[in-house]
Sequence to fold (320 residues):
Amino acid sequence: MKAIRVHEFGGPEVMRIEDVPDPKPDAGQVVVKIHAAGVNPVDTYIRSGTYAIKPNRPYTPGSDGAGVVEIVGKDVKSVAAGDRVYIGGSISGCYAEKALCSESSVYKLPAHVSFSGGAAIHVPYATAYRALFQRANAKPGETVLVHGASGGVGIASVQLARAAGLRVIGTAGTARGIKLALDEGAHEVVDHTASDHFEKLLALTGGRGFDVIIEMLANVNLARDLTLLALLGRVVTVGNRGTIEINPRDSMGRDGAILGMSLAVVQPRDIASAHAAIQAGLENKSLRPVVGREFPLAEAIQAQLAVMEKGAYGKIVLIP
Fold:
């Protein structure tokens, strides 16, 4: 089969498409024929060697995907050959024509969700659910600010928060992104390229501030985020690309909290809980994965460059 392989950490050019043996499942494992693989910013951090967790090389990138179960190993009971599934973590990597997965990492994909949509589920929606409900403990009636509301995690956060009864305010950097966030459930969206967008955000709360802020670029926004918090407000740092200086008094005076999160360290019970909620949302159609662009598998380099560009719009996927 064809797969993207990384033999050394570095720039996007270290990814190469190669022929590798088809995976074979052991007990408790399944092989999924990949119809679409999700591309996430974290994939670029791992490939560059800057991520805290480094895979043994060579490796195939990608933890998100969707396709059809091809082979099941011994004792697998939750899925069968022929089932449509989405993947929430792969043993062998999803930038490939086939992926080896643990049974616990594959989930039934509703018939109305495309395979590309299925590849847009795990990292965006599990991240958003973890940030909103397992870390920030968001409650109906609270007001949430979603930075970067037009990207994969942003759209997932908007949909989840709106379905849970929160007031949702987002930011985006293009007219197209603003419209998408509004269409997907945000009550208000502010252009974050405007120099006064923080003042506009605070004004939308009547000066009260936000109960929860989902922060996609903490190294740029975190210091200002703390000034936007309501009393007992919480900022969850989902994304970060560098360092920043903050004034702790901006959180102290509000009894505010800065909460970190990473899917890499989430316990299995919490991942299972998140996906139970996600599957329910997919079934009742309150959750609707948005795919922005599709690339052929051989264009993984271009896909990883695109996922780091400004003006995020939905999820980027690879098609084997």
